[in-house]
Amino acid sequence: QKEVEQNSGPLSVPEGAIASLNCTYSDRGSQSFFWYRQYSGKSPELIMSIYSNGDKEDGRFTAQLNKASQYVSLLIRDSQPSDSATYLCAVNNQGGKLIFGQGTELSVKP
Amino acid sequence: DTAVSQTPKYLVTQMGNDKSIKCEQNLGHDTMYWYKQDSKKFLKIMFSYNNKELIINETVPNRFSPKSPDKAHLNLHINSLELGDSAVYFCASSQEGIEQFFGPGTRLTVL
Questions:
Q1: Rg, chain A, Cα only
Q2: Which of B41, B42, B103 shows the shortest C-beta gap to A43?
Q3: Is residue B102 predicted with pLDDT exceeding 90?
Q4: Which of B2, B6, B41 to mutate to test the interface with A (most CBs of A within 10 A)?
Q5: How far apart are the two ends of chain B, measured CA to CA in Å?
Q6: pLDDT of amino acid A74
Q7: Percentage of chain A with pLDDT > 70?
């Protein structure tokens, strides 16, 4: 079992729709969870951090964490073509390492 | 102002050569990292330094040697380069190991 798993996609949504990205992790003791956005040929950019169960909203982005289910998600409301990128879920495990999922490629169609 | 910078941005070299990549951060962070992103875009940690002390050393060939002269700088030296070393190498930094911020990356191509 991979430590952090994401659907690889590609996930295609129409402009204005809600994009839903999902991630599961295996280390039950993990405490910190992150979503990074990576445009093609660029570096990962931190867009959301979440540390406690529930929802955290920042603009059009909402991160959701459920530690009991070992599940973290990212919702992007009113998706724009500029949101088209690969989204990386990352989990800080008990060993202090940031473990990345394989990324989900999102395509927002005008 | 660039927060985490790396040089060079591109590196093309022959098998067997030795090369170095340099990283600097001006965020005042205490921890720096090297990551490797392969052709399938999988991002994996290689090394981490906290205040110049090596704290994470993944299973990486000993041809790779990191060095941190001070907490704002982290370099990566690679000896005897192999075809499989071709990848994008990212430097990152964080304060107390929490949110990590990445540099622009160095695309290494070994011919």
A1: 13
A2: B103
A3: yes
A4: B41
A5: 34
A6: 98
A7: 100
- The answer to whether A83 and A76 have CB atoms below 8 angstroms apart is yes
Strand partners, A81: none
- The b/e string for A53-87 (b: 16+ C-beta within 10 A; e otherwise) is eeeeeeeebbbbbeeeebebbbbbeebeeebbbbb
C-beta separation of A81 from A14 below 8 A: no
Query: Which two three-digit tokens encode residue B18?
Result: 């030795």
Query: What spatial distance separates the first Cα and last Cα of chain A, rounded to whole Å?
Result: 37
What is the identity of the amino acid at A107? S
Residues 6+ apart with CB under 8 A from A96: B48, B55, B56, B97
Q: What is the pLDDT of residue B59?
A: 82
pLDDT tens across A65-102, in order? 999 999 999 999 999 999 999 999 999 987 778 999 99
How near does any CA of chain A get to the CA of B89, in Å? 10
By the 8 A CB rule, do A73 and A63 touch?
yes
